[in-house]
Design goal:
Length: 310
């Protein structure tokens, strides 16, 4: 009989002493694991209960994932599992379901899990936060086809009724639109279903936060010694300007190999666009103020990079 349980994969120890938290499939006396994006050790996680000892939010997410795969396993049992190997079973559990079986909520949870598995934790957080807000307003445990333009209008009205700002609602709606587009691209729902076809996501102009030339001069001419707490952040601010407005996340994730000679070369994390910037003396000096490790600025250790959820 095939079973699922949340446990630690103690075969794979991370450098910080934690293990991946997985959903273990056992079938025909063999097992396979599905990653969850979480890590833990025996002090923070109970193998007996399959839960974190002091992290209710993480437990809730794990139970949602377990429920998702348990429902899929139940559906597979109806057609028989005897002819499937444990690897076949894992692949079927990870396969995108048919439109009739998959709800918006289930698909959304799968996308969050996928984003975490490829280390896109920022996007996963946005998806998770948006889903959490929507869950308080509407039920998404229904097939895509049953949620149309009318439902979208009602959702928008409820979002604004909560005194949320226009651009905040815009972030939520664009996230939902991305979910809908992914469902269409994966052939879960027909192209003509698209509820955003005639729906315009509102956007309000934000007050420009640009600095004047005088303010920029004042910033660059601050008198800070290198032993002051704000010094590294001041250097980072100047680097952002000198590196053509580089995104902070891209800057912090630069590696020594991004500077092969007299140029800094990197790909924008969000768009993949390549940039090649000449290493001016000012840039070289600012970079020299940091102690590089596997990262150019050395702001994160390898263990922090391996376990960013914590």
């Amino acid at each position: 009989m095939a079973t699922l349980k949340i446990t630690l994969d103690e075969r794979r120890t991370k450098k910080n002493g934690t293990f991946p938290v997985v959903i273990r499939i056992t079938h025909q006396s063999k097992s396979r694991d599905i990653t969850t994006g979480y890590t833990a050790n025996s002090k923070t996680f109970s193998k007996a209960t399959g839960t974190f000892r002091k992290d209710d939010a993480a437990n809730l997410e794990l139970f949602k994932l377990l429920e998702l795969y348990s429902n899929k396993l139940k559906a597979l049992r109806a057609s028989g599992l005897e002819h499937l190997s444990v690897q076949d079973l894992k692949e079927k559990l990870l396969l995108t379901e048919s439109t009739g079986d998959l709800t918006i909520y289930d698909f959304w949870q799968k996308e969050i899990c996928h984003l975490r598995s490829v280390n896109r934790y920022g996007s996963a957080t946005i998806y998770q936060n948006t889903l959490g807000v929507f869950e308080q307003l509407v039920s998404l445990k229904l097939p895509f086809e049953t949620f149309g333009y009318k439902g979208l209008l009602e959702l928008g009205q409820k979002l604004f009724a909560g005194n949320r700002k226009v651009n905040t609602v815009g972030v939520y709606m664009r996230t939902f639109r991305a979910i809908c587009n992914k469902a269409i691209h994966q052939d879960l729902v027909a192209q003509d279903w698209y509820p955003f076809k005639n729906y315009k996501i509102r956007k309000s102009k934000t007050t420009p936060r640009t600095l004047s030339l005088e303010e920029m001069r004042s910033f660059f001419q601050l008198d800070l010694s290198n032993d002051e707490m704000l010094y590294p952040y001041w250097c980072i601010g100047k680097l952002i300007f000198l590196l053509r407005g580089i995104n902070l996340n891209d800057l912090l994730l630069l590696k020594p190999q991004n500077v092969p000679g007299d140029r800094l070369i990197y790909n924008r994390g969000k768009t993949g666009k390549s940039y090649s910037i000449q290493m001016l003396p000012e840039i070289e000096f600012l970079l020299s103020q940091f102690h590089s490790n596997h990262l150019l600025l050395g702001q994160f250790s390898k263990s922090q990079m391996e376990d960013p959820v914590k």
